[in-house]
Hints:
The complex is a heterodimer. Chain A is mainly alpha-helical. The longest helix of chain A has 25 residues, at 129-153. In chain A, a hairpin with a 5-residue loop joins strand 2 (254-258) and strand 3. In chain A, 58% of the residues lie in helices and 5% in strands. Chain A has three domains: 19-197, Four Helix Bundle (Hemerythrin (Met), subunit A); 207-272, no CATH class; 293-333, no CATH class. Chain A has a three-stranded antiparallel sheet with strand order 1-2-3. By secondary structure, chain B is mainly alpha-helical. Chain B has one domain (20-105): Helix Hairpins, CATH 1.10.287. Chain B has helices at residues 2-10, 21-41, 45-69, 74-104. At the A-B interface, helix 3, helix 4, helix 5, helix 6 and helix 7 of A face helix 1, helix 2, helix 3 and helix 4 of B.
Amino acid sequence: MRSVPARPVRLIDGLVGATTLNHLVSPIILYAACGLGALGVALALPKRTFSPFIVGGIIAAIAFGLLMIGLGVATPADQRPNILFYVFAGIALLASLRVITHPRPIYAALYFVLTILASSGLYLLLTAEFMAFALIIVYAGAILITYLFVIMLATETPSADEMDTLNDYDRFAREPIAATIAGFVLLGALTTVLSTGAAKALPETRLATVNGQQISLLTRKVETVLRDTRDATGKPLLAAGETVASVEGGENGIIKIAGEAGSVTRTIPRAEWPADVTVENIEGVAFTLIGAHPGAIEIAGIILLMAMLGAVVLARKKVDIDEAATHEAMNVLGEKAPGAAQ
Amino acid sequence: MLHTLASAAADTPAPMAGATLYHYLVVSAIMFVIGLIGFLTRRNLIIMFLCTELMFQAAGIALIAFSRFHLNHTGETFVIFVLTVAAAEAAMALALVVLLFRRKETLDGTVWGDLKG
């Protein structure tokens, strides 16, 4: 079940090759971008004196652009990211900046939804389709709705004369300058470590084509694909009475096809397979999840159950039933009410 | 037909995956730091918890990028569990926020500063 995909050699080359910081981005650009970004975030945070979000946001965006240009120059031309990467990353980071700077919690939560949508775009670029949609469903659909409900539940009722004022704790951040400096020193350290240790390239082959052993477990899928695919003359690759007997993956893979009698009548070599006979992302995730980590799923289920019980117990409100109703209930049950005349 | 649409991309390199691992890790690190700064500076309890979700999200991007980088699905599987823990944490944390709000009638995190003693 647990197959080891064949790895392109370039992956290892990249790991060994990227040993110096200069290899990826010049340190001056890196630290200048960090400083500029810190300035932008510090300006954008809500402060007592003045907090121009627009100016701070533009400065932070310039810092991100500077870092990306530095990174792009240092990257070989064939490995530069698609324009969509910059679009999604820019939206995600600007929206997350707005999450921490917007004074109103509702808007912060909605900007967080935007962050989620943009990062699921990044997931799609990484060919993790299943996780991209699971992310939108779980985060944007479930968790954020819970947040919105709590924001609605836990808000002081505004009085008539001050309908639209913000609370002090929403208007002013706590120690914005110090926190920003601390955060961006951490970012500088992180990116430095990354550039000395991380490899430079993502492997270029599609994940699915190399998983030889997993495809042999998916004979029904291969059968469907073969029935749906037509050759040059318009006939399906698998005739009505035929079934797929077995599939062997890998470089010299072969599909064995059985006739109506049940014995293998013909085979399809790897070179003639339709392109769809692969293990897709969602199937690969399923193999890893169910095959390699079955116990973890059970534990995750228990964690969720415990969280649900805990949330119910914590948020429960003690209801005070008034005296008369208590007495009535006691009478119905045939008991003496507490505090009744002796 | 769905099959013909997908078949064009199957054997050629996926066109959008040209970015290097470092690009994704940098985006993940920046998002994590933004979440960290938000957690440290904002005083509204709900926004503080929103910032922890932001940090979870950054970790998720790094995990997915590594999963793509190593050509297996283990990273993605781990993100499923990160999502699970994030959902459980959100339920518990928000119940606690409601509880804390009932106690002091405010969402200000600094009013609990007297716990410093």
